[in-house]
Amino acid sequence: MTTTIPRADPDQYRAFVAGMAFSATSSHGRVRLTGSEHLDFLHRLSTNDTLGCPVGKGLRTVFCDPKGRIVEVAELCRVEADETYAFVGRGGAVSLIEWLDRYHFSEQIEWQDETGQDSQIEVLGAQAATVCADILGLDVAKLPTFACLSRDGLKAMRIERGGHTAVRVWGADIDTVVARLTAAGALPMHHSTYEVLRVEWGVPASAELTLEHNPWEAGLGDAIHMNKGCYTGQEVVARLDTYKKVKQHLVGLRLDGPVAPGATVEVQGRGVGAITSVAESPTLGVIGLGYVRTAHCNADTPITVSADEHLPTSGRISQLPFPS
Fold it and tell me: Torsions phi, psi of 217, nearest 5?
């Protein structure tokens, strides 16, 4: 059986590496949160200090279940005193809203699923921030990561992708934005190319962010505020760090051939983890992400990957993001 894995369009990949490309991300979840108590509500349900987030700034936070397992990961951007946007992955808006609704009683908070309501793109590549400033007047280069600004009906948020500043742009007039970016030399990027880059960057997505894993395992330590006080799952998350009980970590995998997600990662004949995502990079070959037991996470550790319908494939552990 042939394994089909994402492959990058060569021109789109080169556009990202050399300068700039953009990817339509309207299918990624976006939830608008409003109300005088919305930050306090988020503060009690997630890992980061949302109460300490000023207007115009943002942060990443993790919503955990009582066992400290990942329900959803959100990039928050507070655009007004009583208004914050939460950006999540594909299908994430529904699960986030369901989780919020489970804990909502009388708090002054409302939410609206704006996924696909108007267009949304990510501008990527080494020149992304410069071009967005020069062409669109959206200068996020000097802002902290996840900070945002508004201009002419558009909103822009600084994010990090592949070691470079990237820009998330959304609003009703996105067609004009796309036309200006295209005129400046940017190429639109297909989902398959974006997926290859995501794996190269080591950015966890829905396959990695599940109730089977906790934030420490997924490499989301930057989204955890250790001194903020109680939130759902806080005791477990804190204990895992205090007593060094994190049993596995998300790692990169350099592979000698294609394999399917779910395949077992073995070291010296013993199963030590599983693959979650696979892609074929124009520069790195077949690569993947997977969770591997802590004792075997060192870079360059030789591995064998096996699945029922495939012959074993050799490879080795890699640090994240993958070295170029």
Answer: -60, -35
Which residue type sits at 85? Y
CATH superfamily of 10-201: Probable tRNA modification gtpase trme; domain 1 (3.30.1360.120)
247-318 fold:
Elongation Factor Tu (Ef-tu); domain 3 (2.40.30)
Distances 323 to 162, 164, 289, 299, 300 between C-alpha atoms, Å: 11, 14, 14, 11, 12
pLDDT at 308: 61
Confidence of residue 3 (pLDDT cuts 50, 70, 90): low
* Strand runs labelled E in 81-218: 83-90, 110-113, 120-124, 148-151, 154-161, 164-171, 187-189
- The pLDDT of residue 32 is above 90: yes
Whether the model clears a pTM of 0.85, i.e. scores above it, the answer is: yes
Q: Which residues contact 196 (CB under 8 A, 6 or more apart)?
A: 6, 7, 8, 13, 279, 280, 281, 282
Closest to 44 (Cα-Cα) out of 114, 105, 112, 113? 105
The average pLDDT across 266-279 equals 97
pLDDT mean over 90-105 = 96
| Beta strand 83-90 pairing with 148-151 | unpaired
